[in-house]
Amino acid sequence: MEVFKEGRNVKIYYDKSSIDPVKNPILITGFPGFGATGYITTRYLVEALKMKRIGFIMTRYMPDTVSIEGDTGFVFPHEIYSGLDGKVFVLVNQAVPTPVEKDEFAEAIVRWARKNGFNEMILVGGLDSEIRKSPDDMLRWIGNSHYRRKIEEPVMEKGLVIVGPLATLLMYSEIIGLPALAILPYAERNRPDPRAAAVAVSKIAKILNTEIDVSELIKHAETIEVLEKKIRSELETTETRISQKYYM
Fold it and tell me: Each residue of 97-112: pLDDT tens digit?
């Protein structure tokens, strides 16, 4: 495997032969955040497009854990996948980089993408659903000054703030000159939100000019919403009983 090193703390191990700049590849990534939207979206893309793992990002202070998957495999904290005949690459982040290396982590990703001829980068996160203006309002987006693709949904309003790794990636993509787009569906703040991920996946599918079935995400979302409603109802019933007992 080829090794790309940025600074003292971040190394990217990858199969260089899987990347062909002539195909104008796109890099997609996200992180656990509001609704875990970025993580769910990237994980779902890998499964839906049957992508192949071609690399890893290793950092000095990353969690010293791996997740077991299947009978013999395990998952690294940061993995790179390739799909659609080498036209799309997805970086799946099971963890957020630690504060001490978050800057170096973001710079390494952008410089690696630039060095290997990536045409653009799509970042996925969640936007607090509390500020949604209507049920039909699905997402907001923001691109850097190098991004030229036309997006039909409304751009992020003035005064809103992006924080965390997505913000750092946007800053470095601007500095280094890599076109970048952040897609931010409205998401629940305090629980995984597969419905928000479905919005992101559908938008990405449109950008990639391909079809991706999001019915599984919707099914998961409905299951969570039914469970939430049941728990809320039970809590309200319990509170009513306690209140009645107290005031009798």
Answer: 999 999 999 999 999 9
Over residues 105-141, the pLDDT tens digits come to 999 999 999 999 999 999 999 999 989 988 889 999 9
How many distinct helices (H) and strands (E) make up the chain?
Answer: 5, 12
82, β-bridge pairs: 52, 89
* Same-domain pairing of 57 and 176: yes
- Return all residues near 56 (Cβ < 8 A) that are at least 6 apart: 12, 13, 14, 76, 78, 79, 80
Q: Is 111 exposed, middle or buried (0-12, 13-18, 19+ CB in 10 A)?
A: middle
Same domain, 183 and 220: no
Looking at the fold, whether 110 and 130 belong to one and the same domain comes out as: yes
The answer to whether 56 and 6 have CB atoms below 8 angstroms apart is: no
Do 230 and 110 sit in the same domain of this protein? no
| Gap between the Cα atoms of 94 and 99, Å rounded | 16
Domain extent at residue 77? 2-213
Say whether pTM exceeds 0.70. yes
Same domain, 225 and 182: no
